[in-house]
Amino acid sequence: MIFSAYQTHIFILIFIYIILVVSLNLALGYTGLLNLGHVAFFGIGAYTSALLALEGLTYIAAMIAAGLFASVFGYLLVIATDRLRGDYLAMATLGFSFVVYSLLLNLRDVTRGAMGIPGIPKPTILDFTIRTNDQYLIFVLLVCAISVFIMYRIVNSPFGKLLEATRDNAVCLRVLGKNTLSLKYKAMMISAFFAGISGSLYAHYITFIDPTSFYISELILVLTIVIVGGLGSIKGSIVATALIIYIPEVLRMLDLPSSVLGPARQAIYAVILITILMIRPKGLFGKVDLE
């Protein structure tokens, strides 16, 4: 074992969140969709994969179904909010997060409500069951690499350039005869798909999920990572995810009393974030401003 058990746990979470953060950046940074409902796609993917796996579906099928189901909700969200811009779009998508949270909490016959879903099975691939965290680390690293590579190719393709044009000047793009609504729902569906994939990885790693796992606190974390890394930068999302998830864990090593350690960690964490944004207003590798 190369890493300690705790370090392995942290690295697994980092790779899961890299997929989630890069997928949000695809919609927010590259397409200009101020989507505050991304954590809902994360939860939809987690619950879909967990429920299907408990019904006996193979893990790969459950994971793909999680991504597809989340992408359907991404399409519906764009259709419902097509006429909204800026703050109004942000509030509408935030409302979507609360709606999904309420459904997860109240559809007790399906989601078990506040009791959550325990006993989610570990992934089994070609009759091989991933049982240890070291094995899961290799698996999630592989899925993360494939996911990020696909999203990288998308944003650097001609389609990706159209997404950036939608972000920068949608009116001019429509004048040129491009269907900006079609571009938006495709971008949101791709973003939601990978958020669903990350939700599946999270659910089968933790083996227990409940609605509080996908509440606004998770949205704040993911949005913070995107902004610190920089809008429109996959490299920034990857670096910021590693920094923001790993830094608080490093602060645990400080030789401080437990009554002081918690507040101190939060204060130091906040100072680091503020310092980064003061020095680099667009984030570490950002290309555009959040308007």
What does this structure look like?
The protein is an all-alpha fold. It has one domain. The chain is 73% helix and 1% strand. The protein contains 11 helices and 2 strands, in the order αααααββαααααα. The chain has a two-stranded antiparallel sheet. Strand 1 and strand 2 form a beta hairpin. It is globular, with a radius of gyration of 19 Å.
Key traits:
291 residues; mainly alpha; two-stranded antiparallel ribbon; 11 helices
How would you concisely characterize the structure shown here?
The chain is 73% helix and 1% strand. The protein is mainly alpha-helical and 291 residues long. Strands 1-2 form a two-stranded antiparallel sheet.
Tell me about the biggest sheet? 2 strands, antiparallel
Structure classification = mainly alpha
- Helix coverage percent of residues? over 70%
Number of helices: 11
Question: Tally of extended strands?
Answer: 2
Given as residue ranges, the uncertain stretches (5+ residues, pLDDT < 50) are: none
**How many domain modules?**
1
- State the separation between the terminal residues, measured CA to CA: 46 Å
Beta fraction: under 5%
Average pLDDT for all residues: 87
The dominant shape is: globular
- What Rg, in angstroms, do the CA atoms define? 19 Å
Give me the side-by-side strand order of the main sheet: 1-2
How does the SSE layout of this entry go?
Blueprint: H1 5-30, H2 38-54, H3 59-80, H4 86-106, H5 108-111, E1 124-125, E2 128-129, H6 133-155, H7 158-175, H8 180-206, H9 216-229, H10 234-251, H11 258-279
Antiparallel strand pairs: 1-2
Helix pairs in contact: 1-6, 1-8, 1-9, 1-10, 2-3, 2-4, 2-8, 3-8, 7-8, 9-10, 10-11
